[in-house]
Every structure is written in structure tokens, then in C-alpha cells.
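Let's do one together. I've listed all components of the complex below, 952 residues spread over two lines.
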Amino acid sequence: MRKVVIGLEVHCELKSNSKIFSSAKNGFSDIPNSNVSVVDMGMPGILPVVNKEAVRNSIKMALAMNCMVPDYLTFERKNYFYPDLPKGYQITQFKHPIGTNGYVMIDVNGEDKKILIHDTHLEEDTASMDHYNDYSLLDYNRCGVPLLETVTEPCINSADEAVAFLEGLRSIFLYTDTSYARSDKGQIRCDVNVSLMEENATELGTRVEIKNINSFSGVKEAIISEVARQNEVLDNGGEIVQETRRYDESTNKTYTMRSKEDAIDYRYFTDPNLPPIKIDKEWVEEIKSEIPKLHNERFRIYTKEYNINTKDAYTIVKDKKVSDFYEECVNLLNEPVLISNWLTGDVMKYLNRESLTIEEAKLNPIMLTDMIKMVIQGKINGKQAKEVLEKMLDTGKDANTLVNELGMTQISDEGEIRQIILSVLAENKNLIDDYKAGKKVFDYIVGLVMKTTRGKANPIISAKVLKEELEKYL
Amino acid sequence: MVKSIIELNEDLRNEKIDSESLFNQSVKLAKDSQKEYNPFVTILDKYEKNDSDSLVNGIPYVLKDNISTKGILTTASSNILSNYVPVYDATIYKKLKEAGAVLVGKTVLDELAMGGTGMTGHTGIVKNPWDKSRQIGGSSAGSAAAVALGIVPFAIGSDTGDSVRKPAAYGGVVGFKPTYGRISRYGLFPFASSLDHLGIFARNVRDVAIVTDIVKGHDEHDMTSLPDDDKIYTKMLDQSVKGRKLFYIKEALENDDNDSNLSEIIDNFKNVIKKCESIGIEVCEESISKELLLALYPAYMAISCAEATSNDANLNGIHFGVRGEGKTPDEIITDARTKGFSELIKRRFIIGSYILQRENQEKLFLNAYRVRRLVVDKMNELFKKYDGLIMPAAAGIAPKFEDKTDKLSDKYLILDNHLCIGNFGGYPSITIPCGFVNKMPIAINITGRIKEDDLVLNMANKLEDVMEYKNQVAGGDK
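Okay, and this is what the predicted structure of the assembly comes out as:
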């Protein structure tokens, strides 16, 4: 068995109002070339101006990945010709990336693994191109969108680990609120480096790069397919050629793009239009303080301290908004398990059915915890609670209002319940006879009590009182 | 149009003439000059003007054709941009427009501002107004010629090595390049961004100062632009220069071949030193390692070609400019660039690319930057003692067309290549006429400390006052 060695380069578009070097809007648009300025178009004479918000987000990510942040912000030019690159060079960071020497902890099938981050650097995205038979169309909306490229060390050893890392990384983007990180919109893209190491070998095998994979499942399939290909080549006594390949989703195979000999020399040099900017230490601290507890830390707390099962804990931390909602609930009502049950159960079921996010839902933590409190206090029963919750989500009304509207306030007064039971029994004398005859009518009578009170009678008290009353006839 | 900005401004205020007539006069002079001297790529025919109470309100001027002007053809004198009409205004153009100055035309340059002969523009060579068989120099050739010919009182150029100050010297006019970052580069088609400056031509120092006051200032579109210095240079022109100290570089004044023009230039320079002393400026001789001085031009070429090859990579004919033919994007780009650039440009791009290649960067590119750093360190050390450097602007008079060269000649003259020191350090640097050799104008250059634009203008103005070459126009009154 040869050891699989994988390194990833992940490009992710950062959030910001305007583009990284221009005032054009950074936003996904269906109308091509609608968010474009002369700077994005590389018109003669334009100059880049760094967007502070994009820098802030890149620093936030660097810190969240435990990276070192440099003293100065600098940029290099990466020179190559392609129509999607209007300036003929991409402004990127080569010498002093915004983050270096970091790590991200991931969970691979229940086990922790540390993925080392070589660096993460800030750059501008290129235009997008659609190729047709004898022409291509260019959309410059994406051109100049801030992009953060994160490069791992070759320390990933399986396709599952690669996907776990990508999911972990995406989660950090979402938790730090620095990117939407949606692969369906091309906001997160990946290059994969794969090599195989013979058993007992001390040096890495020849590396093959697979470019521009747009989905996590694609990454997984590409790695599996490339590992199989390399194994086959080596098994047949062949040698792996250092090259760049592309992955074709339709055939599930990788194909040669260019060999090492054709590798482009990007002729990097410092962009003279962007003088070094001092990165203030206090600013970095301020940004650091804004990083929320990340998903793996929350997962640990939920499972270890709150004793929530891993499946539910995973469901909660998967979406920061849900997790934030959950934590707010726990702050309001110290019943983490109960809240988790309601949230991952009925609330999520409703959201999935209606295709809503937790933010879009007409439910807030106060509403949910108020309802749970009513259950705990016995004001409503579980079945009623489900109905109240559904109505809350439908209408946005709070639990109290709904309980009143639905006439659900429980009758827990023993005397009152006894009166109701006595009148039910008076109207159904035949049931007393049946009872005396040993027929199983107890639950039926409870049902009648509930029907009479429209479910308001406390079922436990009702059962107790009924038992007392019936025993009188024995 | 031989009057100064101040004089024209007075005429306009006193309604001796109106701005539209001035514009028409300039346009006529421009058209008349075109056949003989070819300074223009575009001469405007529509009079357009904003109202302002600035000194240049209503005064005609020209821009080098590498400055972005919305709706007006801007070619950088290159075939690849021969159809390019910008969609935005350069900051300098915007400021002049707001100040009420009236644009008359766009002037010829050496293609993409590379070169110093005025002979490589796609619309033909620019001739020297003092002698049609000679170069005006470049790359701001048309702007220098337009001012020397008296078509306009001032013109805007750009200066990466000496592209304002050298043609100013050859054309007998004043050429000034302020501190790097003093004038926003936004909208200037780049040649080499770390060396590129905008500059001003006029026929006297005061006019240059007036225009500088208008076009300088911080620009949020240019991260290399300096914060505002809140000074009005025009108001400081007449301050006393008594006690100021200048130096010249001994090694640059060697004349081993006994070139007769150079001898006259050196004699003239000695006279200029006397003039300096007459107004209280002390001039001393200083020595700089010849090795370092000899490295100026190669370092300049390495840095400028490297930056240019990247800066001009946007000229691919895909989204603007003349489009190439071909089936693939690669073919289209290759065709556009093959047809769009002259041989000289391609040569510089190849040099630039070679210098930037991974295996050459350390030896060529980074060493060039080290030379630059050493030169700047040396200058800054001397600037602790002196207020500026004074030197003849060139080692000769404007060359004949047949002497055109873009190659390192065997005879390398430090004196012909020292002006790029001003670009290496971003120093304010001015060239003013100081006499004639063989009936051709010659000039001296003063380069000062960074951000001391006011002092450089002040010293130049005082020196100009005691010389007789202020407001001169080629071929007499026009």
C-alpha cells in the first residue's frame, strides 16, 4: 500500500461591499458585466486602491486559521496572458502572504487531525469565461472580487480527510462571516496536489496538480480517481510525470493539461502601485476579538459539557446561525438538551419542509424558550407544544398569545378537574357500568375529559382524579 | 500665444481677448505647425470650458497622448491603441478642466512613452522647432514642441527617466517633474510605475509653478500619491535663496574626447555657477563613485523594461484597442501585439520579461533595484549637506535624426543619463534654459530633496531671473 499525500489550494471569494482594488460592487449578479469599473477592466492608466474591508476579512481568516500576520501588507503581480485577466497580471501576495504557518483542526470520522496551513494570501479574482464552439463570452463581474487562497502543507492522507478539511474551512469562513463560500456559485474552488509515497520511503513522490475543481464531491472523486491512476502507473513499473491535470466530472477521470516543462513562469514582482501598508497590531487584536467561537469548539462544548448527542450537536454547529440561535436559547433557559431536542427536531423539520433558514423563520430564541418553559411548568403538554410551535413558525406570534388563542391554557386545578370528571361520568353512566364490569374504558374516559376541555385538562391530574372517582364505584 | 499664463490671465480679465479666441488661435497655430513639426496626434476643434477663477481659467494647453481623456482619442502613440477612446478622465485632466483650462490637443510621444527621441510615435516623428533636422527628444516630444513653438503657454508631459526634462532642454523651455506622488498618476498610461511622474512644460518657472499648484494634491485613486502639503508654490517663488547650497557631480563633467559641444556646455555651466553665486547660492563640487554612475542607465533600463512589460500586458486587443485575428484567445492576443507594437517596444518587452524570469530576477532585476537604492542613499546623504544638485541637463544639444539610438553606445556619457536620478529617488527636478550652443538651446537641471518642490521652484525661478532665456520661443514671435 502506498501512502497518499495530498495538498490543497483553496480559493474562496471574500465578502466586501466593493471589489478588492476598485469601487465596483462585489456581488453576484445574473446580468453579465454589470458590476464593473474601469479598474476591473484594466483600462490604460488605472490604479488599484486596496479595500480595507477585504483586508480585514483576510486577516480575520488568517487568525482563525492560527496563522502569523505580517507587519506590512504587500502585493505582487503574477504575470500571464489570458482574456479573463484584463490587466495581463493578477495582483496577489507572493512574498508576504496575509497569513503563514497556521493550522486547522478537523474531525475525520470522529478523530481529530491537525491540518497545517502553509499560507493564506489575498488576491483578486479573474473574469469568468463561457466557451462556445467558435467564440467565448467574458463576464467581468467576478473580475477583482477579493479572493483568499489557502494553501495546506502536503499533510492530508485521504479523500475523506480532504473533504473534512474543506468542510472545516468552509465552516470557518461562515463562522467568521468572511465569505458566503458557496461552491454552486463558484465562490469556493480548489486545486488538488496528489502524490503517492512508497512504503518506507522518506521522500514525497512526484506530485500531480489537478486544477479548478468546483465542488467538494468533485474533490473527493478526483482524488480517488487520480490515486487509482497513479497506483496503476506505478504497479505497471511506470513513472509519475510531474504535470498539471484537469478533472472531468462526466467521465470521473483526470486528463493532462500541461507538463512541468510548459509550466508558466509568472515573473512575480512587487506591485509598484501598492506601497507597503503597516498592519497595526491593535487593529489585528481588534479583529481577533471579533472572531466568534468556531464550530469545533462549539461542538466540543455541546457534546462534552451539555451532553448532547453528536448527531444533534453536528446538526446545530453545521450552520452558525442555528448555533447562535441555540446558544441564545441556552442563555435564556438553562435546558441545553431540551432545547436541542426541540431545535434539531420540530424546528428543523419545519425549516426543511418550508425551505427556510433559521434567520428567515418567524421564530426567535425568546419565543422558543418561552414555549419550552410552558411545557416544563406543565402549562401545556407535549402535543400542544408541537401545535404551538407550528403556529409560532407560521405566524410569528409568541407562545403565550397562541396558547390563549388556541384556548390551550391547562386546567391543573384538582377541584375544577374533579367537577369536569363528575359531570362527564354523570352523562355517561354506562361507562361506569362498563368499568365495574372490568372493561378497559379508563383511557376512553380520559379522552372524553380532554374532549370536553379541548385538551386543556392536565392529563396527569385528570388521570389521578378519575382513578379516585372510579374507585368509589368499586 | 507667446505670452505667459499671468499675461494671458490679465488679458482675459481685462477682456482684451476672450478665451474662445485664444483657443481658436492655439488651434490654428497647432494646425499650421503640424505639417512641419508634427507635434499632435489630435487637435481638438470644439471649444469646451468650465468656469473658474483660477489663473489658468480660459487658457489653452495640451496633454501628452498618454493621459486618459474621456471621449477623446488617446493612443499613447502606439498602433495598438490607435482607435482607443477612454471612458474616464485622468485626475490631472480633471483638475485642469475644473480650473477652466482649455484643452487644445493631444501630443505625440515616443510609443508608450518609451524612448527619448520623439521619433517612434505611430503618427510619425516630431521635429525640433529650433532646427527641423534635429530631434526634440522624448518621450514627451509633442508637448515640448508645442510649448517651444508658442502654440500654448503650457503643456503636460510624463517623465519616467527624463521624458519631460530632456525634451524641455532640447526645446529651450522649462520642464518640471515634482516629487513622486505630488501629482496623481491616475489616468496616466503607465510606462514604469515606480519611476513614472507627470510633469509640466512652460516657458518660465512661474508658469510651471502656477500649473503645479493646480494639478498637485492627494488623490484617493492613487495609493502612491502624497498627502497634501498645503503650500502654494507660486507664493514661494520670490523668496531669497541666499545661503542655499547646491552641488554638482565632478565625474559627470569629464570630457575625455574633447567634444566641442560638450566643452561649450561645460563652459556655460561654469557661467551658470557664477550666476548662482551672484544670487547667493553656493555651488560645490562633489564626487560620486563612477561605478555607481555608470550603472545608472543599465539599472534604469532593467527596472523600467521589467515594469513596462507587465504594465503594458493589458494591451492585448481583447477588451479595448485594435483587435487581433485568430481562432483562439492566444492567437488573437499574439496577433494584436505582433501588429500593434513597433520593434523597439518588442525589444524592450523581451528585455523586461527576460529580467523578470525566475532565474534572472536576482542577478538582473533585484541588482538593478540595489543600484537604485545605493544611488538614492548617496543622494540623500548629499542632500543632508546641500539643498540640491545642479547639472547641465544633457551632454549635448538636440541630436540629429540620424543619431537616433535606443542601444547602449560604446560612448556612454554620465552627463546624458543623470536625470533618471530624479526618478530613482522621486526627487523634484526642473530643467531651465541657460543658453545656446551651435544655435541650439541648452539647459541646466536642478534636483532637490523629496517633497521640497517649493524650494526647487524657488531656486530655479531666482536663477531664471538672472539669465536671459525666460519666455523664449523657437523662431521668434508667433
